[in-house]
Amino acid sequence: MPVITEIEDLRRKYKWRVPKMFYDYCESGSWTEQTFRENTADFKDIHLRQRVAIDMTGRSTKTQMIGQDVAMPVALAPVGSTGMQHADGEIKAAKAAEKFGVPYCLSTMSICSIEDVAANTEKPFWLQVYTLTDDDFMQRLFDRAKEAKCSAAVITVDLQLLGQRHKDLKNGLSAPPKLTPKTLADMAWRVPWGLEMLQTKRRFFGNIVGHAKGVGDAASLMDWTHNNFDQALNWDRIREFRKMWDGPLIIKGIIDPRDALEACNVGADAIVVSNHGGRQLDGALSSIRALGPIMDAVGDKIEVHLDSGIRSGQDVLKAVAMGAKGCWIGRAYVYGLGAMGEQGVTKALEVIHKELDMSMALCGHTDINTVDRDILMVPKGFSGDWE
Ligand SMILES: Cc1cc2nc3c(=O)[nH]c(=O)nc-3n(C[C@H](O)[C@H](O)[C@H](O)COP(=O)(O)O)c2cc1C
Fold it and tell me: GO cellular-component terms in the record (predicted)?
């Protein structure tokens, strides 16, 4: 077993273990992948201010996200089809998160259902919902979240239509995979993945099949998703969703200060500055560049989180220093899951925690809650001097 010291080690291992179709689904951005690349690259433009001879004993990364205690300011982001990266993937990721003490957010488009995850975990998780036209389905989704004791709902607002990822189209992505000569040849190499997948019955979209009207199989599911993502979505419609859910609400997918202000007006408890990991509008600003102007606009009105591009604890530290109350990780934990199941997700969290804790100490802080902009050296014009 290779020694795993960084998230990149998990990505390499994941690439070997999982069929190409699902690796590509995760490791891609839309169109030219400019935003996907810049999400990670832009973090590197920010430097950390090293301090010395400051007592660094008794450190803590504990804090709160939407009033809930967390072992570090990190949550597991909603990732569709996680159960195709590893059998029962959502349950495994949720278990790793709860043992570590960080929130897990289940996607609407998950393989394991809300009820499956609830039955296999002890602590409440968050549920992400897409904005769909089918009101009955939406209300039922919120009701199911309530019954499962979810401690927050997350409305993703940046997917009225699906960004085009070339690789998914070329690979003929589907869940479960269609058995063509090409996919069969690829899966023949992934024996442990295939054997585990054969042992689970969870291979379809568990939140949808059997719950949405007229969706009983993979073919009807495709039609339903195409017809139901709401291209007419507006902030009034989001207010209607707010009425369907009376618990803590997070709006995910904000990259512009004007939209951040709108999100405050619908009564959300937090927003996530996110460009969907570079999977929607290619050419959009990276999240870390977008964070500063959004903090200026709404930082005193609402809790702000950030995702897209986090691959290390140093990235988390930089986002927190710029004002984010927490960060969400997507690919970083999927690499771990695909590579080593639940143990791999735990490994990803341990790697990020260690990097966060040590970097915080070397910047002269012992408590994550005291970290501020002073630890950063941000290049002039980092957030852009755009016309
Ligand atoms: C494979 C994949 C599937 C995703 N599925 C969803 C989803 O179902 N719902 C959602 O709100 N975001 C989804 N996202 C976006 C993530 O929640 C998150 O915003 C993104 O992964 C953050 O970027 P990072 O992967 O660089 O950390 C997905 C991301 C990936 C990589």
Answer: plasma membrane
